[in-house]
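Bug report

Summary: structure tokens for Protein HflK differ between web form and batch submission.
Environment: batch mode, default settings.
Steps: 1) Submit the sequence below via batch. 2) Compare with the web form result.

Sequence submitted:
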Amino acid sequence: MPWSNQNGGGGPWGGGGGGNDKGPWGQGPNRPRGGNGGPPDLDDIIRRSQDRLRDVVPGGFNGGMILIVIAAVAIFWLIQCIYTVQPDERGVELRFGRPKDEVSLPGLHFHVWPFESVEVVKITEQQQNVGSKANSGSATGLMLSGDQNIVNVQFSVLFTVSDPKAFLFNLEEPVETLQQVSESAMREVVGRRPAQDIFRDNRQQIAQEVKNTIQTTMDHYRSGISVNAVAIEDAAPPREVSNAFDEVQRAEQDESRFIELANQYTNQQLGQARGQAAQNIEEAAAYKDRVVKEAMGEAARFTAVYEQYKNAPEVTRKRLYLETMEGVLKNSKRIMIDGQQQGVVPYLPLTELAKPATGQAQGQAQGGN
């Protein structure tokens, strides 16, 4: 109780009565001055606060508190009933756990909480990575190719949510299902092809086949997912056999180089053979023309001789004989002398006499030089 309400002669430290409110050291305690110069009363402060609250809140203090609680509950309920859908999202409202037919577009929306709730789904393009890098040491992404080789394939799947209701309620874990289906589709396609296709040759075609397989499977599950693209980011042999694969690659490169050299040599030899064949054909055609022309000339000459022969048989016969003998004996080293000729020595060595004359002519020619 305040000191002003103490009954008796002295204060708590034995002070004197009769309004003498001094402490044991001869003075009263330091206190703020009230309207009468006395200390403020705690009960009076509480009573005044209650009076002011009654004046502010209609219906008194007890009724005002109820209104405050009701207003707070109403505000909380209103906050729970209003939700916002962003431009890259779509909302699906549920009434007693059952989804409504309509889909909430971007903006502010209202639903009756707690009887209704909302599920928000992002519809922008998302990326799902499948597999691991070759040097990570993980077995994820290891696949068996069609030629019994093991390859480590790392790829990504780009997808969007085309049907928010199907995405939310037809599959328990749609993203996890997409990852499993993607890995299974890649294993199926790689298992039908040699390792060389996935390493270099046909990556684009393999990615397209995998995309089609994933989309068909997800449509069968009614997942509400649209696969936009499949990108093969890396395809390499396992780390344990990478050196052997490098050796194989170098051997294949050497094989390609040797085949190219062989093709060059083949083309060179084939070109030369074709050129020689064309030359032989041209020479044969020229020989043919020459022989034909000569034959035609001989035939024409024979016809002309035959016409002359019909006019003068004896003269023509003798002429032909002389021309024939001239052609036969013109290169002969023997000298034929008619025995009826007089004044010619029958055994004169005319062939021997011709040799010195030839040698003398050569010596004169050399001396003249």
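Above is the batch result. After comparison, the two runs are identical; trailing whitespace caused the diff. The CA atoms of residues 11 and 21 lie 6 Å apart. Residues 242-311 form the longest helix (70 residues).
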